Amino acid sequence: MMIRHPLTLVIKETRPLDIRVDNTCLLLQDLHSPFADPSDGWLARRVREKVLMREFEDYFRLLELITPNIPQVLEAVRGLGIRVLYSCLGHRKGESPSPFQEATGWTWDLDGLNGAYPEAWQPAQGEPMFSKPGWSALANPEFTSFLADNRIANVLVMGTMLDFGIRQTCIELSDRGIGSLIISDAAVALTREGQDYTADNIAHGLIKLRYTGEFLGLLEVLKQEGSVLI
Amino acid sequence: MIQTVLGPVKEEELGVCLPHEHIWCDQNYGPRMNLMGTTRDPAGFMKLDNFDRVASELKAYKAAGGGALVEVTCDGWGRDLDTLARLSEAAEVHIVSTSGYYIEPHIPYFVDDWSVERVADHITGEIEKGVGESGRRCGLFKSAIHRARVEAIELKVLKAVAIAQKRTGAAITTHTTGSRRMEVPGGTVGVHQLEILKGEGVDPSRLIVGHVDERPDIDVLSSLADEGCFIQFDVIGKEHYVLDQTRAELVHALIERGYVNHLMLSHDRNRDYEMRYGGSTGYCHIFETFLPRLRQLGVSDEQINTMMVLNPARALSIN
After folding, report:
1. Is residue A144 part of a domain?
2. What does pLDDT average to in each consecutive run of 10 residues of chain B (319 residues)?
3. Angle between the A69-80 and A212-225 helix axes, to the nearest 10 degrees?
4. How many domains does chain A have?
Protein backbone atom coordinates (compact mmCIF):
# COMPACT_ATOMS: atom_id res chain seq x y z
CA MET A 1 0.00 0.00 0.00
CA MET A 2 1.36 3.39 -0.95
CA ILE A 3 0.98 6.16 1.62
CA ARG A 4 1.10 9.71 0.31
CA HIS A 5 1.19 13.02 2.17
CA PRO A 6 -0.21 15.62 -0.23
CA LEU A 7 -0.63 18.22 2.53
CA THR A 8 3.11 18.73 2.50
CA LEU A 9 2.86 20.14 -1.00
CA VAL A 10 0.97 23.18 0.19
CA ILE A 11 2.55 23.74 3.60
CA LYS A 12 5.12 26.47 3.99
CA GLU A 13 7.60 25.25 6.57
CA THR A 14 8.01 24.16 10.16
CA ARG A 15 8.59 26.93 12.67
CA PRO A 16 12.16 26.71 13.95
CA LEU A 17 12.59 25.76 17.60
CA ASP A 18 14.85 28.06 19.59
CA ILE A 19 16.14 25.61 22.15
CA ARG A 20 17.56 27.01 25.37
CA VAL A 21 17.99 25.42 28.76
CA ASP A 22 15.38 27.70 30.34
CA ASN A 23 12.60 27.29 27.75
CA THR A 24 12.79 23.59 27.04
CA CYS A 25 11.98 20.34 28.79
CA LEU A 26 12.44 16.67 28.02
CA LEU A 27 9.31 14.52 28.33
CA LEU A 28 9.53 10.78 28.85
CA GLN A 29 6.07 9.55 27.98
CA ASP A 30 4.74 6.09 28.77
CA LEU A 31 8.18 4.74 29.55
CA HIS A 32 6.97 3.16 32.77
CA SER A 33 6.92 -0.54 33.47
CA PRO A 34 3.58 -1.51 31.84
CA PHE A 35 4.82 -0.56 28.36
CA ALA A 36 8.59 -0.43 28.74
CA ASP A 37 9.56 -3.50 30.75
CA PRO A 38 9.93 -6.23 28.11
CA SER A 39 10.12 -9.07 30.61
CA ASP A 40 7.79 -8.31 33.48
CA GLY A 41 5.75 -5.27 32.43
CA TRP A 42 1.99 -5.38 32.15
CA LEU A 43 1.99 -5.54 28.35
CA ALA A 44 4.69 -8.22 28.16
CA ARG A 45 2.91 -10.42 30.69
CA ARG A 46 -0.51 -9.97 29.10
CA VAL A 47 0.83 -10.74 25.64
CA ARG A 48 2.40 -13.96 26.89
CA GLU A 49 -0.73 -14.99 28.79
CA LYS A 50 -2.92 -14.41 25.73
CA VAL A 51 -0.50 -16.09 23.31
CA LEU A 52 -0.18 -12.89 21.28
CA MET A 53 3.61 -12.75 21.17
CA ARG A 54 3.79 -12.68 17.37
CA GLU A 55 1.51 -9.64 17.23
CA PHE A 56 3.87 -7.66 19.45
CA GLU A 57 7.14 -8.96 18.04
CA ASP A 58 7.81 -5.68 16.22
CA TYR A 59 7.05 -3.66 19.33
CA PHE A 60 9.44 -5.48 21.62
CA ARG A 61 12.11 -5.57 18.92
CA LEU A 62 11.80 -1.81 18.43
CA LEU A 63 11.77 -1.31 22.19
CA GLU A 64 15.05 -3.19 22.34
CA LEU A 65 16.48 -0.93 19.63
CA ILE A 66 15.51 2.32 21.36
CA THR A 67 16.53 1.18 24.84
CA PRO A 68 20.21 2.23 24.57
CA ASN A 69 19.27 5.65 23.19
CA ILE A 70 17.03 6.71 26.08
CA PRO A 71 19.70 6.89 28.82
CA GLN A 72 22.11 8.54 26.37
CA VAL A 73 19.67 11.34 25.68
CA LEU A 74 18.65 11.57 29.33
CA GLU A 75 22.23 11.91 30.53
CA ALA A 76 23.06 14.58 27.95
CA VAL A 77 19.90 16.57 28.71
CA ARG A 78 20.37 16.38 32.47
CA GLY A 79 24.00 17.36 32.05
CA LEU A 80 22.90 20.60 30.42
CA GLY A 81 20.34 21.36 33.13
CA ILE A 82 17.26 20.95 30.93
CA ARG A 83 14.23 19.97 32.99
CA VAL A 84 13.06 16.37 32.73
CA LEU A 85 9.39 15.37 33.11
CA TYR A 86 7.67 12.00 33.15
CA SER A 87 4.12 11.36 32.06
CA CYS A 88 2.53 7.96 32.04
CA LEU A 89 -0.83 6.30 31.69
CA GLY A 90 -2.37 5.47 35.03
CA HIS A 91 -3.63 7.22 38.13
CA ARG A 92 -2.03 8.42 41.34
CA LYS A 93 -3.18 7.76 44.86
CA GLY A 94 -6.41 9.65 45.44
CA GLU A 95 -7.25 9.83 41.72
CA SER A 96 -9.89 7.64 40.14
CA PRO A 97 -9.18 5.74 36.93
CA SER A 98 -10.30 7.83 33.96
CA PRO A 99 -13.08 6.64 31.61
CA PHE A 100 -10.32 5.84 29.08
CA GLN A 101 -8.53 3.70 31.64
CA GLU A 102 -11.74 1.96 32.60
CA ALA A 103 -12.47 1.24 28.95
CA THR A 104 -9.04 -0.18 28.19
CA GLY A 105 -8.63 -1.93 31.49
CA TRP A 106 -5.36 -0.06 32.03
CA THR A 107 -6.28 1.09 35.52
CA TRP A 108 -2.71 1.22 36.70
CA ASP A 109 -1.86 2.56 40.13
CA LEU A 110 1.25 4.61 39.51
CA ASP A 111 2.17 4.55 43.18
CA GLY A 112 2.47 0.78 42.95
CA LEU A 113 4.52 -1.57 40.77
CA ASN A 114 2.95 -0.22 37.57
CA GLY A 115 4.46 3.17 38.29
CA ALA A 116 8.00 1.79 38.32
CA TYR A 117 10.57 2.66 35.69
CA PRO A 118 13.42 0.58 34.28
CA GLU A 119 16.65 1.31 36.10
CA ALA A 120 18.23 3.08 33.09
CA TRP A 121 15.73 5.94 33.07
CA GLN A 122 14.52 6.24 36.65
CA PRO A 123 13.34 9.74 37.55
CA ALA A 124 16.00 11.66 39.44
CA GLN A 125 15.17 13.56 42.59
CA GLY A 126 12.87 16.47 41.84
CA GLU A 127 11.87 15.33 38.37
CA PRO A 128 8.07 15.32 38.33
CA MET A 129 5.95 12.38 37.19
CA PHE A 130 2.48 13.28 35.92
CA SER A 131 -0.30 10.77 35.64
CA LYS A 132 -1.91 10.60 32.23
CA PRO A 133 -5.66 9.91 32.06
CA GLY A 134 -5.63 9.12 28.33
CA TRP A 135 -3.29 9.21 25.36
CA SER A 136 -2.21 12.82 25.62
CA ALA A 137 0.00 14.18 28.40
CA LEU A 138 -2.03 17.38 28.17
CA ALA A 139 -5.11 15.57 29.44
CA ASN A 140 -3.68 16.18 32.90
CA PRO A 141 -4.20 19.87 33.78
CA GLU A 142 -1.25 19.75 36.19
CA PHE A 143 1.00 18.98 33.24
CA THR A 144 -0.26 21.93 31.22
CA SER A 145 0.07 24.17 34.27
CA PHE A 146 3.66 23.05 34.69
CA LEU A 147 4.43 24.03 31.09
CA ALA A 148 2.79 27.41 31.52
CA ASP A 149 4.32 28.15 34.94
CA ASN A 150 7.80 27.33 33.66
CA ARG A 151 7.32 29.14 30.32
CA ILE A 152 8.15 26.05 28.36
CA ALA A 153 8.28 26.80 24.64
CA ASN A 154 9.69 23.48 23.44
CA VAL A 155 9.15 19.89 24.51
CA LEU A 156 11.59 17.18 23.53
CA VAL A 157 9.86 13.83 23.53
CA MET A 158 10.78 10.18 23.79
CA GLY A 159 8.79 7.18 24.88
CA THR A 160 6.46 4.39 23.81
CA MET A 161 3.14 4.38 21.97
CA LEU A 162 4.46 6.79 19.34
CA ASP A 163 1.49 6.09 17.10
CA PHE A 164 -1.06 6.93 19.78
CA GLY A 165 0.10 8.81 22.86
CA ILE A 166 3.16 10.66 21.62
CA ARG A 167 1.44 11.63 18.42
CA GLN A 168 -1.52 12.99 20.37
CA THR A 169 0.63 14.91 22.85
CA CYS A 170 2.71 16.52 20.11
CA ILE A 171 -0.30 17.57 18.08
CA GLU A 172 -1.93 19.14 21.14
CA LEU A 173 1.31 20.92 22.04
CA SER A 174 1.47 22.25 18.50
CA ASP A 175 -2.12 23.48 18.72
CA ARG A 176 -1.11 25.47 21.80
CA GLY A 177 1.89 27.00 20.08
CA ILE A 178 4.41 24.86 21.93
CA GLY A 179 7.03 23.29 19.71
CA SER A 180 7.90 19.64 20.00
CA LEU A 181 10.75 17.54 18.77
CA ILE A 182 10.56 13.76 18.86
CA ILE A 183 13.78 11.82 19.20
CA SER A 184 12.59 9.33 16.65
CA ASP A 185 14.83 6.40 17.52
CA ALA A 186 14.03 6.87 21.19
CA ALA A 187 10.31 6.52 20.56
CA VAL A 188 8.55 3.32 19.65
CA ALA A 189 5.32 2.51 17.85
CA LEU A 190 3.46 -0.77 17.97
CA THR A 191 4.69 -2.02 14.59
CA ARG A 192 7.56 -1.20 12.25
CA GLU A 193 5.09 0.08 9.67
CA GLY A 194 3.43 2.15 12.39
CA GLN A 195 6.82 3.55 13.35
CA ASP A 196 7.60 4.68 9.79
CA TYR A 197 4.11 5.86 8.99
CA THR A 198 3.67 7.83 12.21
CA ALA A 199 7.09 9.45 12.04
CA ASP A 200 6.43 10.51 8.46
CA ASN A 201 2.91 11.62 9.25
CA ILE A 202 3.95 13.64 12.28
CA ALA A 203 6.75 15.32 10.35
CA HIS A 204 4.27 16.35 7.69
CA GLY A 205 2.05 17.71 10.42
CA LEU A 206 4.88 20.15 11.16
CA ILE A 207 6.38 18.45 14.19
CA LYS A 208 10.13 17.94 14.19
CA LEU A 209 12.00 14.67 14.41
CA ARG A 210 15.68 13.99 14.96
CA TYR A 211 17.56 10.75 15.49
CA THR A 212 19.57 10.34 18.69
CA GLY A 213 22.88 10.81 16.86
CA GLU A 214 21.70 14.05 15.30
CA PHE A 215 20.11 15.25 18.53
CA LEU A 216 23.24 14.72 20.62
CA GLY A 217 25.13 16.80 18.05
CA LEU A 218 22.60 19.59 18.47
CA LEU A 219 22.99 19.46 22.27
CA GLU A 220 26.73 19.97 21.76
CA VAL A 221 25.94 23.19 19.90
CA LEU A 222 23.59 24.21 22.72
CA LYS A 223 26.33 23.55 25.23
CA GLN A 224 28.84 25.69 23.37
CA GLU A 225 26.58 28.52 22.25
CA GLY A 226 23.83 28.70 24.86
CA SER A 227 21.07 28.11 22.32
CA VAL A 228 20.45 26.10 19.20
CA LEU A 229 17.97 26.68 16.41
CA ILE A 230 16.36 23.48 15.18
CA MET B 1 33.62 16.38 -23.91
CA ILE B 2 31.85 14.20 -21.35
CA GLN B 3 33.91 12.12 -18.94
CA THR B 4 32.61 8.54 -18.59
CA VAL B 5 34.14 5.66 -16.67
CA LEU B 6 35.55 4.34 -19.96
CA GLY B 7 36.97 7.69 -20.97
CA PRO B 8 35.81 10.82 -22.73
CA VAL B 9 32.97 10.83 -25.23
CA LYS B 10 31.70 13.63 -27.42
CA GLU B 11 28.46 15.34 -26.37
CA GLU B 12 26.67 14.14 -29.51
CA GLU B 13 27.59 10.52 -28.68
CA LEU B 14 25.87 10.46 -25.29
CA GLY B 15 22.33 9.71 -26.48
CA VAL B 16 19.35 9.47 -24.15
CA CYS B 17 20.69 10.00 -20.64
CA LEU B 18 19.24 9.38 -17.18
CA PRO B 19 21.11 11.98 -15.11
CA HIS B 20 20.42 10.63 -11.61
CA GLU B 21 20.57 6.86 -11.06
CA HIS B 22 22.36 4.31 -8.91
CA ILE B 23 23.87 1.22 -10.47
CA TRP B 24 26.28 -0.08 -7.85
CA CYS B 25 25.90 0.98 -4.21
CA ASP B 26 25.49 -0.19 -0.63
CA GLN B 27 24.28 2.29 1.94
CA ASN B 28 25.38 -0.02 4.74
CA TYR B 29 28.97 1.13 4.06
CA GLY B 30 28.07 4.61 5.32
CA PRO B 31 30.55 5.43 8.08
CA ARG B 32 28.09 7.32 10.33
CA MET B 33 24.93 5.34 9.91
CA ASN B 34 23.97 6.01 13.54
CA LEU B 35 22.80 9.37 12.20
CA MET B 36 20.16 7.49 10.20
CA GLY B 37 18.59 6.28 13.46
CA THR B 38 18.80 2.94 15.20
CA THR B 39 15.19 1.92 14.55
CA ARG B 40 15.52 1.81 10.76
CA ASP B 41 15.63 -1.60 9.18
CA PRO B 42 19.01 -1.97 7.42
CA ALA B 43 17.29 -4.24 4.91
CA GLY B 44 15.57 -1.11 3.62
CA PHE B 45 18.78 0.75 2.85
CA MET B 46 19.82 1.44 -0.73
CA LYS B 47 21.76 -1.44 -2.21
CA LEU B 48 22.53 -2.77 -5.68
CA ASP B 49 25.33 -5.30 -5.72
CA ASN B 50 24.53 -8.14 -8.12
CA PHE B 51 26.55 -7.66 -11.31
CA ASP B 52 24.52 -9.91 -13.58
CA ARG B 53 21.18 -8.52 -12.45
CA VAL B 54 22.28 -4.92 -12.78
CA ALA B 55 23.81 -5.67 -16.18
CA SER B 56 20.50 -7.13 -17.32
CA GLU B 57 18.72 -3.91 -16.23
CA LEU B 58 21.20 -1.80 -18.16
CA LYS B 59 20.79 -3.98 -21.23
CA ALA B 60 17.02 -3.56 -21.04
CA TYR B 61 17.53 0.20 -20.82
CA LYS B 62 19.83 0.08 -23.86
CA ALA B 63 17.31 -1.98 -25.77
CA ALA B 64 14.57 0.54 -24.95
CA GLY B 65 16.62 3.36 -26.44
CA GLY B 66 18.87 4.41 -23.54
CA GLY B 67 22.37 5.61 -24.17
CA ALA B 68 23.82 6.80 -20.88
CA LEU B 69 23.31 7.06 -17.14
CA VAL B 70 24.85 9.22 -14.45
CA GLU B 71 25.72 7.02 -11.48
CA VAL B 72 25.41 9.34 -8.48
CA THR B 73 26.85 7.05 -5.79
CA CYS B 74 29.79 8.89 -4.22
CA ASP B 75 32.80 7.80 -2.22
CA GLY B 76 31.58 6.61 1.19
CA TRP B 77 28.97 4.05 0.25
CA GLY B 78 30.28 1.67 -2.34
CA ARG B 79 31.28 3.71 -5.39
CA ASP B 80 33.36 1.37 -7.58
CA LEU B 81 34.49 2.76 -10.91
CA ASP B 82 36.06 -0.50 -12.08
CA THR B 83 32.78 -2.33 -11.65
CA LEU B 84 30.96 0.51 -13.38
CA ALA B 85 33.41 0.23 -16.26
CA ARG B 86 32.73 -3.51 -16.58
CA LEU B 87 28.98 -2.85 -16.48
CA SER B 88 29.35 -0.14 -19.09
CA GLU B 89 31.16 -2.55 -21.37
CA ALA B 90 28.73 -5.38 -20.71
CA ALA B 91 25.62 -3.31 -21.46
CA GLU B 92 27.15 -0.94 -23.99
CA VAL B 93 25.85 2.16 -22.24
CA HIS B 94 27.84 5.19 -21.18
CA ILE B 95 28.18 5.60 -17.43
CA VAL B 96 29.31 8.82 -15.77
CA SER B 97 30.55 8.49 -12.19
CA THR B 98 30.29 11.13 -9.49
CA SER B 99 32.74 12.89 -7.22
CA GLY B 100 31.84 14.90 -4.13
CA TYR B 101 29.88 13.36 -1.27
CA TYR B 102 26.43 12.17 -0.27
CA ILE B 103 24.59 13.10 2.94
CA GLU B 104 26.32 13.34 6.33
CA PRO B 105 25.92 9.66 7.38
CA HIS B 106 27.90 8.67 4.27
CA ILE B 107 30.68 11.25 4.31
CA PRO B 108 34.07 9.65 5.00
CA TYR B 109 35.72 10.65 8.27
CA PHE B 110 38.72 12.22 6.56
CA VAL B 111 36.46 15.06 5.42
CA ASP B 112 36.16 16.05 9.11
CA ASP B 113 39.90 16.39 9.44
CA TRP B 114 40.72 18.01 6.13
CA SER B 115 40.36 21.70 5.30
CA VAL B 116 37.82 22.77 2.69
CA GLU B 117 40.72 23.41 0.31
CA ARG B 118 42.16 19.94 0.82
CA VAL B 119 38.78 18.33 0.19
CA ALA B 120 38.50 20.47 -2.95
CA ASP B 121 41.96 19.32 -4.09
CA HIS B 122 40.97 15.71 -3.54
CA ILE B 123 37.75 15.85 -5.53
CA THR B 124 39.34 17.98 -8.24
CA GLY B 125 41.76 15.10 -8.66
CA GLU B 126 38.86 12.68 -9.11
CA ILE B 127 37.77 14.68 -12.16
CA GLU B 128 41.18 15.56 -13.58
CA LYS B 129 43.37 12.56 -12.73
CA GLY B 130 41.09 9.72 -11.70
CA VAL B 131 39.97 7.83 -8.61
CA GLY B 132 42.58 5.89 -6.69
CA GLU B 133 44.56 3.34 -8.61
CA SER B 134 41.82 2.84 -11.18
CA GLY B 135 42.72 6.06 -12.90
CA ARG B 136 39.11 6.25 -14.01
CA ARG B 137 37.68 9.74 -13.84
CA CYS B 138 34.44 11.10 -12.49
CA GLY B 139 32.38 13.40 -14.67
CA LEU B 140 30.58 15.66 -12.18
CA PHE B 141 30.30 16.55 -8.51
CA LYS B 142 27.60 15.90 -5.98
CA SER B 143 26.53 17.88 -2.95
CA ALA B 144 23.86 16.50 -0.65
CA ILE B 145 21.83 18.02 2.14
CA HIS B 146 20.14 15.78 4.67
CA ARG B 147 19.93 18.28 7.49
CA ALA B 148 17.11 20.78 7.61
CA ARG B 149 19.55 23.56 6.77
CA VAL B 150 22.78 23.75 4.83
CA GLU B 151 25.24 23.55 7.71
CA ALA B 152 28.11 21.68 9.36
CA ILE B 153 29.92 19.03 7.31
CA GLU B 154 27.39 19.16 4.49
CA LEU B 155 28.17 22.89 4.11
CA LYS B 156 31.87 22.09 4.12
CA VAL B 157 31.38 19.66 1.25
CA LEU B 158 29.27 22.19 -0.66
CA LYS B 159 32.03 24.78 -0.37
CA ALA B 160 34.69 22.27 -1.44
CA VAL B 161 32.55 21.28 -4.40
CA ALA B 162 32.21 24.95 -5.36
CA ILE B 163 35.99 25.36 -5.44
CA ALA B 164 36.46 22.17 -7.43
CA GLN B 165 33.68 23.11 -9.84
CA LYS B 166 35.32 26.42 -10.68
CA ARG B 167 38.63 24.67 -11.33
CA THR B 168 37.26 21.92 -13.53
CA GLY B 169 34.05 23.27 -15.06
CA ALA B 170 32.25 20.01 -14.20
CA ALA B 171 28.61 20.28 -13.16
CA ILE B 172 27.28 19.94 -9.62
CA THR B 173 24.31 17.65 -9.07
CA THR B 174 22.48 17.98 -5.77
CA HIS B 175 20.50 15.88 -3.32
CA THR B 176 17.93 17.94 -1.48
CA THR B 177 16.13 15.57 0.88
CA GLY B 178 16.39 18.21 3.59
CA SER B 179 13.47 19.87 1.83
CA ARG B 180 11.22 17.04 2.94
CA ARG B 181 11.80 17.88 6.57
CA MET B 182 9.53 20.85 6.01
CA GLU B 183 11.95 23.09 7.86
CA VAL B 184 13.54 25.07 5.08
CA PRO B 185 12.39 28.65 4.64
CA GLY B 186 10.98 28.80 1.14
CA GLY B 187 10.52 25.08 1.09
CA THR B 188 13.52 23.85 -0.81
CA VAL B 189 17.14 23.18 0.02
CA GLY B 190 17.99 23.79 -3.64
CA VAL B 191 17.41 27.51 -3.23
CA HIS B 192 19.87 27.63 -0.34
CA GLN B 193 22.43 25.55 -2.21
CA LEU B 194 22.18 27.95 -5.12
CA GLU B 195 22.62 31.00 -2.87
CA ILE B 196 25.75 29.53 -1.31
CA LEU B 197 27.21 28.40 -4.62
CA LYS B 198 26.57 31.79 -6.19
CA GLY B 199 28.29 33.36 -3.20
CA GLU B 200 31.28 31.14 -3.92
CA GLY B 201 31.33 32.27 -7.53
CA VAL B 202 29.78 29.23 -9.21
CA ASP B 203 27.89 29.84 -12.46
CA PRO B 204 24.24 28.74 -11.75
CA SER B 205 24.08 27.12 -15.17
CA ARG B 206 26.48 24.45 -13.84
CA LEU B 207 24.07 23.48 -11.06
CA ILE B 208 21.63 20.58 -11.42
CA VAL B 209 19.09 20.87 -8.61
CA GLY B 210 18.00 17.34 -7.88
CA HIS B 211 14.97 15.71 -6.30
CA VAL B 212 12.79 18.71 -7.11
CA ASP B 213 9.86 16.35 -7.58
CA GLU B 214 9.94 15.11 -3.99
CA ARG B 215 8.20 18.30 -2.96
CA PRO B 216 7.71 20.38 -6.06
CA ASP B 217 6.65 24.02 -6.03
CA ILE B 218 6.27 25.38 -9.52
CA ASP B 219 7.12 28.93 -8.48
CA VAL B 220 10.36 27.83 -6.78
CA LEU B 221 11.25 25.68 -9.80
CA SER B 222 10.59 28.56 -12.15
CA SER B 223 12.83 30.86 -10.14
CA LEU B 224 15.63 28.27 -10.13
CA ALA B 225 15.33 27.97 -13.90
CA ASP B 226 15.29 31.76 -14.22
CA GLU B 227 18.63 31.73 -12.40
CA GLY B 228 19.94 29.36 -15.06
CA CYS B 229 19.94 26.08 -13.09
CA PHE B 230 18.86 22.71 -14.38
CA ILE B 231 15.79 21.45 -12.54
CA GLN B 232 15.79 17.69 -12.38
CA PHE B 233 12.67 15.57 -11.94
CA ASP B 234 14.61 12.54 -10.82
CA VAL B 235 12.41 10.40 -8.60
CA ILE B 236 9.93 9.61 -11.33
CA GLY B 237 8.02 6.48 -10.40
CA LYS B 238 8.25 7.12 -6.64
CA GLU B 239 4.64 8.05 -6.19
CA HIS B 240 4.70 8.24 -2.41
CA TYR B 241 6.19 11.71 -2.94
CA VAL B 242 4.08 12.87 -5.85
CA LEU B 243 1.95 11.05 -8.40
CA ASP B 244 3.60 10.58 -11.80
CA GLN B 245 0.62 12.26 -13.41
CA THR B 246 1.28 15.33 -11.25
CA ARG B 247 4.93 15.23 -12.31
CA ALA B 248 3.90 15.06 -15.95
CA GLU B 249 1.54 18.00 -15.52
CA LEU B 250 4.26 20.01 -13.77
CA VAL B 251 6.81 19.23 -16.50
CA HIS B 252 4.25 20.25 -19.10
CA ALA B 253 3.46 23.47 -17.23
CA LEU B 254 7.17 24.30 -16.92
CA ILE B 255 7.62 23.71 -20.64
CA GLU B 256 4.68 26.03 -21.26
CA ARG B 257 6.46 28.63 -19.13
CA GLY B 258 9.48 28.33 -21.41
CA TYR B 259 11.81 26.19 -19.30
CA VAL B 260 12.34 23.16 -21.54
CA ASN B 261 16.07 23.86 -21.76
CA HIS B 262 16.36 23.48 -17.98
CA LEU B 263 14.49 20.23 -17.44
CA MET B 264 15.93 16.74 -17.03
CA LEU B 265 14.24 13.43 -16.14
CA SER B 266 15.44 10.42 -14.15
CA HIS B 267 14.34 7.76 -11.62
CA ASP B 268 16.98 7.50 -8.85
CA ARG B 269 16.75 3.70 -8.87
CA ASN B 270 18.67 2.25 -5.95
CA ARG B 271 16.94 -0.88 -4.63
CA ASP B 272 16.24 -4.33 -6.00
CA TYR B 273 12.48 -3.95 -5.72
CA GLU B 274 12.57 -0.99 -8.11
CA MET B 275 14.15 -3.10 -10.83
CA ARG B 276 12.62 -5.29 -13.51
CA TYR B 277 14.04 -8.37 -11.82
CA GLY B 278 12.31 -7.14 -8.64
CA GLY B 279 8.96 -6.84 -10.37
CA SER B 280 9.10 -3.14 -11.21
CA THR B 281 10.13 -1.14 -14.27
CA GLY B 282 13.83 -0.46 -13.55
CA TYR B 283 15.54 2.11 -15.73
CA CYS B 284 12.79 1.78 -18.35
CA HIS B 285 10.00 3.38 -16.31
CA ILE B 286 10.27 6.76 -18.01
CA PHE B 287 10.20 5.17 -21.46
CA GLU B 288 7.33 2.87 -20.64
CA THR B 289 5.02 5.00 -18.54
CA PHE B 290 6.17 8.60 -18.18
CA LEU B 291 6.84 9.68 -21.75
CA PRO B 292 3.37 8.47 -22.79
CA ARG B 293 1.90 10.74 -20.10
CA LEU B 294 3.92 13.69 -21.41
CA ARG B 295 2.92 13.00 -25.01
CA GLN B 296 -0.72 12.81 -24.00
CA LEU B 297 -0.40 16.28 -22.50
CA GLY B 298 1.01 17.57 -25.77
CA VAL B 299 4.74 17.50 -25.08
CA SER B 300 6.48 17.00 -28.42
CA ASP B 301 9.21 14.52 -29.32
CA GLU B 302 11.54 17.45 -29.89
CA GLN B 303 10.91 18.69 -26.35
CA ILE B 304 11.45 15.19 -24.97
CA ASN B 305 14.71 15.00 -26.92
CA THR B 306 15.76 18.30 -25.37
CA MET B 307 15.08 17.05 -21.84
CA MET B 308 16.59 13.59 -22.28
CA VAL B 309 19.44 14.12 -24.75
CA LEU B 310 20.47 17.72 -25.28
CA ASN B 311 20.14 19.00 -21.71
CA PRO B 312 22.10 16.13 -20.09
CA ALA B 313 24.82 16.50 -22.72
CA ARG B 314 25.07 20.21 -22.03
CA ALA B 315 25.04 19.68 -18.26
CA LEU B 316 27.74 16.99 -18.34
CA SER B 317 29.97 18.75 -20.82
CA ILE B 318 33.38 19.64 -19.40
CA ASN B 319 35.32 22.14 -21.42
Report:
1. yes
2. 98 98 96 88 92 98 98 97 98 98 96 98 98 94 89 95 98 86 72 95 98 92 97 96 96 98 98 97 98 98 98 95
3. 10
4. 1
* A104 Cβ under 8 Å from any chain B Cβ: no
pLDDT value of position B215? 87
**A8/B182 Cβ within 8 A:** yes
pTM: 0.92
Contact of A169 with A138, CB cutoff 8 Å: yes
Let me know the angle formed at the C-alpha of A155 by A152 and A160, rounded to the nearest 5 degrees. 145
In a domain, A6, yes or no: no
State the ipTM, two decimals. Answer: 0.85
As a whole number of angstroms, the distance between CA A73 and CA A79 comes to: 10
- A contacts of B112 (beta carbons < 8 Å): none
Provide the CB-side half-sphere exposure for A75 (13 A, CA): 7
B256 touches chain A (CB under 8 A): no
Q: Which one of B33, B36, B39 would you mutate to disrupt binding with A, by most A Cβ within 10 Å of its Cβ?
A: B39
Mean pLDDT, rounded, for A132-147: 98
Name chain B contacts of A13, Cβ cutoff 8 Å: 182-187
CATH label of the domain that carries residue A112: 3.40.50.850
* B31 vs A: CB within 8 A: no
Q: What's the domain range around A30?
A: 21-224
Give domain status of residue A198, yes or no.
yes
Contacts of A61 in chain B (CB under 8 A): none
Assigned domain for A88 exists: yes
Distance, in Å, from the CA atom of B310 to the CA atom of B305, rounded to the nearest integer, reads 7
Residue of B nearest to A12 (CA): B187
A4 close contact with B: CB closer than 8 A: yes
Please give the mean pLDDT across all residues of chain B. 95
